[in-house]
Amino acid sequence: AIEKVCELYRLVPGEELSWLDESMRSSLYKWYNHPVSQNWRNLTPSKIDNLDLQGNALNTFLLILSCHGNGYVREAALKKLHRLDEKLAAKIAFVRANDWIENIRKVATTILNDIISKSPPEEVVSYLLFVDQLKGRSRQDHQYLVRDFERRLSIDDGKNALANAVATENYRIARMAFELARKTYVDKSPLVDTGIKHTDPLIRSLSMKLMLDEYSGEELLEGLLLLCSDSYAPLRKRAIYSLVEKFPDEIYKPLLPC
């Protein structure tokens, strides 16, 4: 039964773990007097080292235990999971970094700092959604953790991973990666070049705004002419207006196909 539950848990997207954490605890109250619920509540940290599970089943069950109502159990499970599976531990550590118990918050933050500092940038950038969620939580000031995360992606290999994230078809990740790249890139041209060709109209709109702030001359003209034929009508309209304002002698070019 435990292995089947673990299989189901592995289907949950990592960014949904905070919802799952809350719903799991609240649902247990409905079955407070059920024997299974009582066994769950009676778990102690000492039992975590004697679980009769192996491999993925053990790691996933430790993730579940990291959502236990007993803070000592949550802490012990999180620490053991960190030793066995850092990637899985990172996902639940983003939830526990906002735990209502201070010591668990510290443990989770230490784990995340360790993982972020030594993981390859392609893995670090995969935590964009988790960091975005953490920004909206207030039991602890998370600005230092967020700053370290952004700093890790501001160096050369991190910028490459961030550029790949901007180009992804996952709009949520692409938008967050774009905003972070906009803050950290000194040379904005690679970001603009990728952004104005993106399938997401919001990223194309943000790229146009960035292009108007950063570009001039032929580079700006070329970008505006491209956006004048954009499939998104409001963006196409803004591009034509900007072309009229900045290059009035060139306005005939996007109108020729009409």
Helix count equals 18
Number of strands: 0
Judged by helices, strands and strand pairing, the structural class is mainly alpha
The overall average pLDDT, rounded, is 85
* Main sheet properties: none
* Secondary-structure element pattern, one letter each: HHHHHHHHHHHHHHHHHH
Rounded Rg: 24 Å
Report, as a whole number of angstroms, the end-to-end distance: 66 Å
* Percent helix: over 70%
What fraction of residues sit in β-strands? under 5%
| Quaternary organization | single chain
Q: Characterize the overall form.
A: elongated
Which stretches are low in confidence, meaning pLDDT under 50 for 5 or more residues running?
none
Could you walk me through the main structural features you see in this protein, from its secondary elements to its overall organization?
It is a single chain. The chain is mostly helical and 258 residues long. The protein is 71% helix and 0% strand. The chain is built from 18 helices and no strands. α1 packs across α5 (55-65). The longest helix has 17 residues, at 102-118. The radius of gyration is 24 Å and the shape is elongated. The mean pLDDT is 85.
